[in-house]
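Justification of computing resources. Each target in the renewal requires a structure prediction run like the one illustrated here; the chain below, 224 residues long, is used simply to show the kind of job we budget for.
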Amino acid sequence: MAILKPVARAVLKRKEYKNSISKYMSGEVDWSDKSLKLVKDTIRAILRVEQKDICPYCQRIIIPERRNVNEHIEHFLDKSKDKYKKFAFTASNLILACQGCNVEKGIRDLIGKGLPAPAYLTRQTHFLWPHPYFDDMSQCIQKLPGPVYSPIVGSGRETQSTRLIKELKLNDIQSIESRYGRLVARRTQLMRILRKLAIKNDERSRAKMALFIIEMDKVDQDLS
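Resulting structure tokens:
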């Protein structure tokens, strides 16, 4: 996928979110506090459009079984580490990741061992993985049918790409089978939804059908 644009930056500058973000940064509230729900929901919505519902790590559709559970706001540099908390609401540190990639990544430190925390996030920062805001992930990692992943020679990010593939277990058969099962379940669910909307066949239902058909196409592409 193409290099992401820091679209969340405009959201984070809004006056209505300033107080809740400030409270989080000062330690008055934690990430799960309800005062942050609105800003997080807004970030999810804008990232969903920017990423076209695709997880930048595995380059596959984010299966929306239940949006707020399976569509994680992922922090490239993990917010739970004190040295990276300052990037908790930095636009170029915020990504939507699928459940599988988010779980496998966990709180992994993606700055080289022994290196200090960066003052800013830039392409020159020594990240251990390709970074979706500074690297075109599809030019760093090749995804072939299966899917099977491999680093792209000549990208300049071969070492980082190899590490990402290994640490996220993208070529692990168990992960692939689990992912396939979720896709099949989602496709079945979409078929049921489309069937019900087709029966109603009013203007509102037809508008909804168009959106679900687009998602069905994405699921079918992942299954192929």
